[in-house]
Write the structure tokens for this entry.
Amino acid sequence: MVTIQEVDSVEILSLQDNYIDVLAMDNSEVVQRPSLFAQTGDAEGTVSNGPLAEHGFSSFITVSFGGQKKSMLFDFGCSDNGALYNVDLLSIDLAQVDELALSHGHFDHFGGMEQLVQRIGKNSLSLVAHPSVFKDRYVRTPTGLKLDFPAFNKEQVLSMGLSINDTSSPFPMLNGHALFLGEIPRITSFEQGMPNAFCLNDGVECPDSIEDDSSMIFNVKGKGLVVLSGCAHAGIVNTVTHALEVTGASSVYAIMGGFHLSGPYHEQFIEPTISALQAIAPRYIVPAHCTGRKATQAIEQAMPDAFICNMSGTTLRF
């Protein structure tokens, strides 16, 4: 069991996600959407561009505890400048970032890393990730066509001036107030990863189990765990179950991130996933990124009181 220090709150700002709706206007104590309007006078304002959305995920996380705050980045978006564009639009000071973590080694999670790291401007940062993030990866289409994934390698990370903490075990971050979950056991019968994912092992094609998939865990005082996934290739139910076992926590406050239930193959697992999530009974459920339209709609219908729609540029305060 790993001790994770309680926090008074955790704020998760989505620097990148697949969706944006600038007319949502549903701000609350938990949800803060970015404004399109900049006030220029007592009764005047101008309209600005909204945040960019793309098929990628990146989050700027701030934990508050005992009058202190610590910040980190978890994932870095897909394109070179998508997440950074939103940083500038929202006037986010990345100099506050003390630590970095990567959910897994897919291009839609590391694509903007170099630009974000340059903006942070620190020389002593390390990247926490599973050792398998550096695999040579690709997928095969139903017709057998090989589609290579953009490469991610250690030399690339080191060239950014970062050091690497590669771990398959749970790894405390932010002075023990956050936990990189490490490798997640595959327990459920319905969370099977990506059967069309492959990698090279000594030049030989092998199925890619995406064992590097991981998540960030936080423990909000008096509320329970906040679980933040990148894609949850290990399964969001497996992820939450492992988080509870590792931390010894008894309740889950919020589950957020990509649940990877998009596309014809994964849609067959929407119903058992929802049933398991209902049994876990989080106060908030926030499907994002690769969860998919059908799964997101089904989750909202099944868990309307807990559901929050995530978007690029949105801050959620738990």
The chain has a mean pLDDT of 95. The chain has seven helices and 21 strands. The chain has one domain: 6-30+55-317. The longest helix spans residues 236-247.
